[in-house]
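Module 6 notes. Inverse folding takes a fixed backbone as the condition and produces residue identities as the prediction. Think of it as a translation problem where the source language is geometry and the target language is the twenty amino acids. Below is one complete input and output pair. Work through it position by position during the lab.
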């Protein structure tokens, strides 16, 4: 997927906009039944290039809109993108279907979404993972776009602390698909969590693949040989916990782990990999969750009920928008004292006693 180089700076440049909007924007209200006239409501969704079966952010967002459609008793319209050239035409096709609310999944769809929103002011647009500020002036570019954003650094901080405590080798690793803020936010939080563990425990657990400023990237979001090679390079440096950030690239990481013959734990992102991909069940320690299914559902229901709020939503540990998954098959492998420390750390982050830095905070 080819994205404008400006998108690299988008997350940071839009931070002022996000924080300002989020300060007055609570999580979308849960629907309490369809409002009168909602039977004519048409919810729609357009995927990023990963497709709706990516076991990640496209799939989670789809499940949220699907749940809303089922609850409302209406038909969901959808358009699956194969490349970035599909974004604009797919959004236009949804407008042609008479959609009342259109969910665009992923920052790559931001420009096309803003253009369509300005041309169709009576349609509600819900944009996942982007602030809709394509000129980076600190202001949202269309009044009828609701950004859904997730401060995953907070949850990744917990995963980093957990990984540092779990590691026997004293080395944990991470790599990403492409160096965008929505990718590196996971890596930033992960490293901060490891650093916090070292500070608390007086240890020196090393993070391979990300130094806080730059690191290892595959150049895309596909499960391919490039992703596998990056994973193998990190594994060769002795890590025993690995965090791949970028949708399907975890599949390449899993293959590299299996071929290594070593006892290496995998961390998932976005969805709970243990639940979405059976092949990971013996390998996944936990997953860093972005509860996009919940926030997309609630935003669509608000639109259907005539209560659409276009202010940005930012998912946090406090409002349940982000979190970490259960340990599942690793439950007995994680020291009970470490589990208690992670639980306590979550509350300390919520209470502001521990600060997690990201472009959203």
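Target side of the pair, the amino acids:
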């Amino acid at each position: 997927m080819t994205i404008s180089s400006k998108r690299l700076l988008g997350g940071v440049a839009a931070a002022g906009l996000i924080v300002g909007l989020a300060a007055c924007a609570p999580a979308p209200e849960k629907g309490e039944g369809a409002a009168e006239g909602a039977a004519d409501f048409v919810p729609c969704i357009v995927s990023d290039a990963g497709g709706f079966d990516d076991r990640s952010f496209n799939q989670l967002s789809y499940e949220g809109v699907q749940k809303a459609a089922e609850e409302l008793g209406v038909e969901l319209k959808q358009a699956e993108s194969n490349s970035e050239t599909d974004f604009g035409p797919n959004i236009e096709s949804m407008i042609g279907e008479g959609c009342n609310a259109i969910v665009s999944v992923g920052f790559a769809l931001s420009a096309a979404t803003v253009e369509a929103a300005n041309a169709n002011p009576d349609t509600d647009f819900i944009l996942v993972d982007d602030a809709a500020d394509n000129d980076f002036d600190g202001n949202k570019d269309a009044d009828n776009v609701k950004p859904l954003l997730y401060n995953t650094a907070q949850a990744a901080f917990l995963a980093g602390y957990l990984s540092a405590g779990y590691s026997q080798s004293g080395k944990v690793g991470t790599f990403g698909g492409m160096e965008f803020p929505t990718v590196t936010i996971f890596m930033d939080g992960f490293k901060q969590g490891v650093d916090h563990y070292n500070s608390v425990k007086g240890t020196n657990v090393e993070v391979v693949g990300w130094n806080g400023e730059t690191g290892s990237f595959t150049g895309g979001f596909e499960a391919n040989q490039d992703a596998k090679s990056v994973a193998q390079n990190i594994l060769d440096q002795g890590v025993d916990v690995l965090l791949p950030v970028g949708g399907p690239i975890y599949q390449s990481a899993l293959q590299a782990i299996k071929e290594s013959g070593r006892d290496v734990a995998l961390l998932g992102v976005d969805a709970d990999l243990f639940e979405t991909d059976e092949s990971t069940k013996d390998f996944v320690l936990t997953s860093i969750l972005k509860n996009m299914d919940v926030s997309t559902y609630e935003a669509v229901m608000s639109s259907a009920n005539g209560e659409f709020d276009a202010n940005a939503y930012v998912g946090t540990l406090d409002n349940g928008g982000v979190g970490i998954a259960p340990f599942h098959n690793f439950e007995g492998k994680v020291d009970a004292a470490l589990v208690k420390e992670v639980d306590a750390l979550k509350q300390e982050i919520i209470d502001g006693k521990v600060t997690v830095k990201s472009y959203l905070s």
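Reference fact for the lab report: Residues 1-36 have pLDDT under 50 and may be disordered.
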